[in-house]
Design a protein that fits this description.
A hairpin with a 3-residue loop joins β29 and β30. The chain is globular. It has 457 residues and is mainly β.
Length: 457
């Protein structure tokens, strides 16, 4: 049985799943196509996931053993399959990233090379514009440094102990090689920001490389970790990273202090894990972490999706989870949740379970929602919501004569707007804020109500 101090058991009837365990997360929909090819024991049909948003619509791009699938998840309760494409082989490893209106996919242990898809006709269709093994036949992961218009290819059959760097800005459908140097060891996965590559080097650990000159990368710092350093993500302010170790099963995750990387030094801030199985079973295994604001969203294999508060990276706190793979009463290793994507403008979370497919979820942040009895959510009306121009109207009959403050908070917990309200009818303009969801906190004295706001220009 899965457990937590505050446990919530929810029953669903999707396919063969009998029960789901969740805490501060809810399932909005699920897609599991039992007819698609499988790559092992009816457990490994699905793999990677990535998201894409354009023109007020949201999409999930899903890898499976034989296909790349494109789903419209604008209505999170009703995903729609727009298109799917066969890669040519079957595999348990695919990776997907987007740049401008293109999606790039690669796969490991295949001869598929790289596929490039044009997304500009969504929601009607997707077009495959290129499939090529010019730079490699197979690879394990890719990462796109969007501001610098570069793709980094890890774990390829051409540069196994290093990275291939491609220019995708000049012509997104025809990348150009700009670097393919070897490093200290095999690179399993990589995160890149401002030409700095944070590399998971498997059994060699974690290293930071300067790729300002892609033909001559410079090692800035390296660090040995417990086991097979599998993947990482860097905090918004660049002061720390979170990493997952996949082999052997059951290793904890870790956070790394990056503040002294320029001096050639890194150190572990913490190791941690939050297993959901009782009887002190600590062999849950993480796969891929992603950071959004102060939170990490982790695909955690047999424990599904976990949400961690990294406000203090030396002391991560479990804030929520959704178990996509409730079958197990003990940890077997690598079944369950493969990927998660937390960056859709709506705030909805998309994830893939290797057996049970696409999941669309919502995280109900316990740090931001607080409703007092005397001043309730029913007393407030905010419209239109979503707002297509960033302008919201606020109606409340308790405001007049009261000292009332409106605060707008983004998903990282940062205050981005505030205003004193003095009338029962007020208007606020958030058009300067990026598209996405926010929390509007209305305070009257010691009482407060929080409303979710969505800017969708």
């Amino acid at each position: 049985m899965k457990k937590h101090l505050f446990i919530l058991l929810i029953i669903f009837s999707f396919n063969s799943i009998q029960a789901q365990v969740s805490w501060n997360m809810e399932l909005l929909s699920m897609v599991d196509d039992n007819t698609i090819p499988d790559n092992g024991n009816n457990q490994w049909a699905y793999n990677e996931i990535w998201g894409y948003a354009e023109n007020n619509r949201e999409y999930a791009i899903v890898g499976s053993a034989a296909y790349i699938h494109f789903f419209d998840v604008t209505d999170p309760t009703n995903p729609i399959l727009v298109d799917q494409f066969a890669g040519g082989d079957t595999t348990i490893w695919r990776d997907i990233k987007t740049f401008e209106n293109y999606a790039y996919t690669i796969s490991d242990e295949t001869s598929e090379g790289m596929m490039i898809f044009d997304l500009s006709d969504l929601p009607n269709s997707v077009s495959l514009v290129s499939q090529s093994n010019t730079f490699f036949t197979k690879a394990h992961n890719i990462f796109i440094d969007t501001p610098n218009e570069k793709m980094y290819v890890a774990g390829s059959d051409v540069v196994n102990n290093g990275l291939i760097v491609l220019d995708i800005g000049t012509n997104p459908t025809s990348p150009e090689l700009i670097g393919n140097d070897t490093l200290i060891d095999y690179v399993h996965d990589v995160y890149v920001r401002d030409n700095i590559a944070y590399c998971s080097h498997g059994n060699t650990g974690f290293a930071v490389w300067d790729y300002t000159d892609a033909t001559e990368p410079i090692l800035k710092a390296s660090l040995s970790t417990n086991g097979y350093n599998h993947s990482s993500w860097v905090s918004d302010d660049g002061t720390f990273a979170i990493f997952a170790e996949e082999v052997p099963p059951g290793l904890p995750m870790g956070t790394v202090d990056l503040t002294n990387v320029d001096n050639g030094f890194m150190e572990i801030l913490s190791y941690f894990q939050f297993p959901l199985i009782t009887d002190d079973d600590i062999f849950n295994t993480p796969h891929n972490p992603f950071i959004l604001g102060n939170y990490a969203f982790v695909s955690y294999y047999e424990d599904g999706v976990q949400v961690l508060d990294l406000t203090d990276p030396a002391n991560p706190v479990l804030l929520g989870y959704f178990d996509t793979f409730p079958n197990n009463n003990n940890y077997q290793g690598y079944f369950g949740c493969w990927g998660v994507y937390p960056y859709l403008p709506s705030g909805n979370i998309i994830a893939t379970d290797r057996k049970y497919g696409l999941h669309v979820m919502r995280f109900n942040d316990p740090n931001l929602v607080s409703v007092e009895d005397e001043f309730s959510e029913k007393d407030i009306a905010i419209f239109p919501n979503p707002s297509l121009d960033g302008v919201f109207n606020i109606l409340n009959n308790k405001i007049e004569g009261q000292k009332t403050l409106l605060e707008v908070i983004d998903v990282s917990g940062k205050l981005v707007f505030q205003k004193q309200l003095s009338n029962t009818s007020e208007q606020i303009n958030l058009s300067d804020l990026p598209n996405g969801f926010y929390f509007g906190k209305i305070k009257i004295g010691e009482k407060e109500v929080v409303k979710k706001l969505m800017v969708s220009k």
